[in-house]
Specification:
By secondary structure, the protein is mainly alpha-helical. Helix content is 71%, strand content 0%. Helix 2 runs antiparallel to helix 7, helix 4 runs parallel beside helix 6 and helix 5 runs antiparallel to helix 6.
Length: 238
């Protein structure tokens, strides 16, 4: 995995989250459309590229790891409060504690997504598509996270700090995987398909939750449908 990929993962979150500082109020419908676009891209990426890539080695247990990833994401959302698909729960009162559980769930989610990024795919375009999918997914999440923290009364300095922690998780997952693989004591490469299967399960949960959540008004659903088609079509271009 090249340095540029690490930088893209990190700064896409920091810059998109910090962009909230320039606006008095985020357009919630616009954020939902951005989430729908990223969810459609993730779903199409998973179906078109990622799922076929893990079934090439005839691992009879691979489907179990897809299910494991799906249920891991359900568990993580107990802590993250569903911010991965745009749910923002404002904690604004005098005795409100910082939502560390939410940050923990979100960071573990991002760390797991980063682990398979160092895998050597048969088709280089799959690696690029996976990187693009994670980045597109993280941009609206970073905006939602920054908005939620600011609305909860967290200062801009602390908000930026927590954005940087979140931004470091996917690169940390990829770096940890790379270090373990480079170690002579442990060859993680033989488990990449199963790790990818877990990430696929996470992607399936996130993308389908985004796509099938109810939206207000027929006109919004019309716009959402167009955005979903565009997100899915983008997979054919990367």
């Amino acid at each position: 995995m090249q340095l540029l990929s690490y930088l893209l993962l990190f700064f896409s979150i920091v810059l998109s989250g910090a962009s909230v500082f320039a606006f008095k109020k985020i357009n919630r419908k616009g954020l939902k459309l951005l989430l729908a676009f990223s969810g459609a891209f993730l779903f199409a990426l998973t179906v078109m590229h990622l799922i076929p890539s893990i079934y090439t080695n005839e691992d009879h247990f691979i489907g179990a790891f897809v299910l494991l990833g799906f249920f891991i994401q359900i568990l993580l959302e107990i802590f993250s409060e569903g911010i991965e698909h745009g749910h923002m729960h404002v904690h604004k009162h005098e005795n409100a504690a910082f939502p560390y559980g939410m940050m923990l769930g979100l960071c573990l989610h991002s760390f797991l997504e980063g682990i398979p990024l160092v895998q050597r795919f048969n088709n280089e375009s799959v690696e690029i598509s996976l990187l693009a999918g994670i980045i597109l997914h993280h941009i609206p999440v970073a905006i939602a996270l920054a908005t939620m923290l600011l609305d909860s009364g967290v200062s801009r300095t602390r908000t930026l700090f927590f954005l940087m922690i979140f931004a470091s998780m996917a690169p940390a997952g990829a770096w940890s995987s790379n270090m373990l693989n480079a170690s002579s004591a442990f060859d993680i490469s033989m488990y990449y398909d199963r790790l990818m299967a877990i990430v696929i399960g996470i992607f399936l949960h996130i993308s389908t939750t985004i796509l099938f959540e109810s939206s207000e008004g027929h006109r919004f659903n019309y716009y959402k449908f167009i955005v979903i088609l565009l997100g899915a079509a983008l997979v054919f271009l990367v």
